[in-house]
């Protein structure tokens, strides 16, 4: 609503205001400062001649100067930084069940995909006697110490559903007020 009102005032008498502005005399530009070099060269032919004259003494000195440019020798890096792979890494097909659409198909040996990691962590959690660290290391082409650290520090989440009577007890509980 406010835009319509302001547009009316902005467009009021536009043509007359435009004609008035166009019919005004244009302001004269500020005088330019004469540049010393161009004006002096145009006025004095001696200066122009001095600029374009060749000086023999300077020419002989210039001929004596010889510049030789050499590139420094190229140093080969000692492989401390980035290297190109010298051979292709061996890859293995992933061992996926019903989740194969979610994950990659080939993984380098010694590495696992996320879905595989979650699968073997869950298998170990459900059946630790069958899915031992040695069996997981052999199955997924991993090092034993890495598998042991994975089993020790990573635990998959579990979903727990509380019975209805427990839910009531939790909902009915009032928190203590801090004073």
TrEMBL record:
Pfam families: UPF0240. Residues 17-27 have a biased composition (Basic and acidic residues). Residues 17-42 are annotated as: Disordered. GO terms for biological process: mitochondrial respiratory chain complex I assembly. One of its GO terms (cellular component) is mitochondrion. Belongs to the NDUFAF4 family. Binds calmodulin. Interacts with NDUFAF3. PANTHER family: NADH DEHYDROGENASE [UBIQUINONE] 1 ALPHA SUBCOMPLEX ASSEMBLY FACTOR 4, UPF0240 PROTEIN. This is NADH dehydrogenase [ubiquinone] 1 alpha subcomplex assembly factor 4.
């Amino acid at each position: 609503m406010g835009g319509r009102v302001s547009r009316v005032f902005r467009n009021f008498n536009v043509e007359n205001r435009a004609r008035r502005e166009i019919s005004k005399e244009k302001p004269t530009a500020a005088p330019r400062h004469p540049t010393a070099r161009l004006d002096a060269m145009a006025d004095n032919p001696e200066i122009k001649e001095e600029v374009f004259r060749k000086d023999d003494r300077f020419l002989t000195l210039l001929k004596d100067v010889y510049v030789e440019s050499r590139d420094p020798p190229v140093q080969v890096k000692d492989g401390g930084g980035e290297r190109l792979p010298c051979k292709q890494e061996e890859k293995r097909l992933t061992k996926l069940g019903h989740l194969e659409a979610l994950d990659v198909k080939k993984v380098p040996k010694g590495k696992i995909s996320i879905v595989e990691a979650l699968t073997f962590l869950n298998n170990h959690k459900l059946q630790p006697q069958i899915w031992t660290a040695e069996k997981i290391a052999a199955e997924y082409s991993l090092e034993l110490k890495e598998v042991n650290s994975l089993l020790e520090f990573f635990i998959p989440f579990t979903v727990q559903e509380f019975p209805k009577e427990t839910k009531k007890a939790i909902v009915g509980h009032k928190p203590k007020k801090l004073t």
